[in-house]
Amino acid sequence: MKKKTVWIISILLLFVVNLTALDVGDAAEDFTSIDPSGTTYYLSQYKGQVVLLFALGNTCHYCIAEGQYVEALYQEFADNGQFAALGLDFWDASSSVTSVNYFIHMTGISFPILMKVGFLSTVYDITYDRLMVVAPNGIIAFKGNLFASQDIDAARQVIKSLLQTTRVSDNLNTPATFRLDQNVPNPFNPSTRIVYSIPENAMVRLTIFNQMGQEIATLVDEVQQQGEHSVIFERSGIPSGVYFYRLNIGNQFITKKMMILR
Description:
The protein is α+β, with helices and mostly antiparallel strands.
């Protein structure tokens, strides 16, 4: 009799969890965590942008194998200042600077990956190796129930639709000027040019990170005027390999990958 009672309670609890979990059409719950570099991120800091969320396990073989496809999806829209992406490491027990940096190294992912956010699995009733998309108004627009690679096309269509809708509401007389171009040349040695554009006078940071998420150079850290800017990056003894450069104004980020040749 006791076993039957426990079984019934377990079923009821599972039903309540599924009933309260957030789904498409619900407002996404805000969350905060840090990436391996120690930078703090909030979902709410991307309000007004389309946000791709990639739920993962830091040493999950399937997640590592599919990470390259998620990165490719991210790169399709990375130049659009109204788009952003976050990785969410659900494997709290093994989530660490070392394990997440290993995941980044193996997948080539250039967007931030937040550590120890397994609680979001219950909030959204979603497991690892899944995709979600949050609309600019903070509403969940897509929640995948297949492996990430199998939901790439569906997520892409949702992102495209949301970005098109967002553009309609923009002032058509003002160009979308929050932009970070691919460095030229790339790969490079010993120097490369980075061109970017900002939509208004603002505090600008342009930084270089290695694959471990460590900041190795700051190219710009000042208030700049609206418009297009460029800066030359000299390797200055930095070892060859893959690096990332990030443009930050206010709560907006764009990150791209570069390679230094021997």
